Amino acid sequence: MERPGLTPERLTRAGAELADEAGFDAVTISALARRFDVKVPSLYSHLRNSQDLRIRIALFALEELADRVADAVAGRAGRDALAAFADAYREYAREHPGRYAAARLRLDPETAAASAGVRHAQMARAILRGYDLDEPAATHAVRMLGSVFHGYVSLELAGGFEHSAPAAQESWDWIVDSLDSLLRNRSTT
Q1: What is the pLDDT of residues 116-174, one digit of tens each?
Q2: pTM of this structure
Q3: What are residue 158's phi and psi, to 5 degrees?
Q4: Architecture of domain 8-185
Q5: Which DSSP state fits 115?
């Protein structure tokens, strides 16, 4: 018997909440069934399996994060845009660690190409236009920003900066300033 009100969208959102609470690795059809107090088979009319659920959460997180980043960088340029971009990722990861992990799920090429992941790359490239980088420097810069921001956020979420001075925020600001300086110095003009 199908439980009223259960939809793939509602289950995806509940899975995203579960990911934030228990970690993305803990998200399964069984865990979701327990959350709704239903039998596991009742969810299979909405979801194919746990991997389908995980992909849906990843796509949801990518979309949610892209919207947040777009709002943060709108109307900004240069270092201000770079900082807003970086801060939006960092804040999202702190507020939604499970969703942030989901956004890193490896997707098949077709799914990835149709996802909001494309918007993330487009926003990074838009910010970098202000630094007037040619190719392949712009591609290198997109990869560098993603690597630096994800690496820092991952270490911070794991508690890597809690036991020493200076404060993590001070290092974060220093990194953004350093990236801005590096990008300005790499400009093709």
Answers
A1: 999 999 999 999 999 999 999 999 999 999 999 999 999 999 999 988 999 999 999 99
A2: 0.90
A3: -80, 0
A4: Orthogonal Bundle (1.10)
A5: S
